[in-house]
Specification:
Length: 91
């Protein structure tokens, strides 16, 4: 069965404007990805960088949300994360 795992940079909090404070550096996310690959018994299919808008907004479902609006006068924040596609087991 084909599945995926997302590795999304974390953040500590938001300031009074709603902007993210202390967003995790993208390069600092790579050790977590590499450790997961080493630890899990998965056949890798693909590793990709994904960029989606507003995944940390209230009411959104993060990297798996299929509806991420970007219209209107309010600004959108685009977030980069890593998605690993894999097949369970080592067929």
């Amino acid at each position: 069965m084909i599945r995926f795992k997302d590795f999304v940079p974390a953040y500590d909090s938001r300031n009074w404007l709603g902007q993210f404070k202390n967003l995790q550096n993208f390069e600092d996310l790579m050790p977590e990805v590499n450790e997961w690959i080493e630890r899990e018994d998965r056949r890798l299919i693909n590793i990709e960088t994904v960029v989606l808008p507003n995944i940390h907004n209230l009411g959104e479902e993060g990297s798996v949300d299929t509806d991420l609006p970007t219209a209107g006068k309010t600004g959108s924040r685009w977030h980069q994360f890593i998605r690993v596609w894999y097949q369970e087991g080592r067929a």
